[in-house]
Amino acid sequence: MKDYYAVLGVNRNASEAEIKKAYRKLARENHPDVAGPDGEERFKEVGAAYEVLSNPEKKAMYDRGVDPRATAGSQGGAQGFGFEDIFESFFGGGSPFGGQQRGPQSRVQRGGDQLVGVEVSLEEAVFGVNHEVVVDLADVCSTCSGSCCAPGTQPSTCSTCRGQGQVQRVARSLLGNVMTTSPCPDCGGYGTIIQSPCPDCAGRGRTHSRHTIKVDIPAGVETGTRIRLPHMGDAGVGGGPKGDLYVEIRETSHKTFERRGDDLHCTLEVPMTAAALGTVLTVDTFDGAQEVDVPQGTHSGHTVRLKGLGVGRLQRPGRGDLFVHLDVLTPTDLTDEQQELMTRLAKLRGEEMPEARLAPIGGGVFSRLKDAFMGRG
Hints:
HSP40/DNAj peptide-binding domain; 4-stranded mixed β-sheet
């Protein structure tokens, strides 16, 4: 019968709150959206264990040695239980007809998962990077190799339960003598007792040390992205398998570029004369210097799109785009000669006394800014 307590990583005396807390933690870690296909079976297993242990009636039945979920293939009975199962559910011990009792609890448990944060720059998020993270992990004790026993020793059979992990008691009731079964109080249900614990790990089978681990961070990650490294978490108890290590990303801001999804945005300042006459400017990007064409008569808010110079797409081919927003600068510190030239230009253009005109909807600067923000242009 499946050990649902071991599945959730709780002991047999765990409270309802402890069982619920353990389930929520494991369900989050093994949900297919987080762990992928590898976690699907584990997710189902955790759900089955919680279904039984969270229900007082099912839990009581399970503690008496009957799995409420294992109904398929049972003999006769409306609930799917055979006669021996019904006997066990009433009297708690093995049946007088030779039914098999539950064995001792295993000391082997899966190691816990670990979460560590790592900070990446915007440029590292654009292209991906190999990073090193430092994390404290539980390791298999090198002295006892996870056995929990001092070198040269081994667990001894519990004299109280004789290795069964359970003890039976007879109590009087209205129905007569009733036999009940419970975990052995001396060995805790393991069936064995460690008389000489390992001195280096105090009988835990694990020690802790600091590890430096290399992580391949793909392009396209952002704040909140978690990377799962299977079997690189804490070592299990009693030589059990390792848990997983999760690396959570925090992306730092950049002084020049702003990220919006897979696209990058920046603002390029253009002198008024260059915007009026048209020119070609050079802008430094993560891919090196790139030319930006400034058409004649450019206004503030005009956007130039440089395709394929954005952020690499996470788990998808290709990259986003780079949007360069042009900001036309109006001079404020004109010399006398420059002011005279500007006055002559205004006279030539008939703009000495300009009239205020409202721009039509869809054609003004606000429309251009909206288009720039939405990634059009």
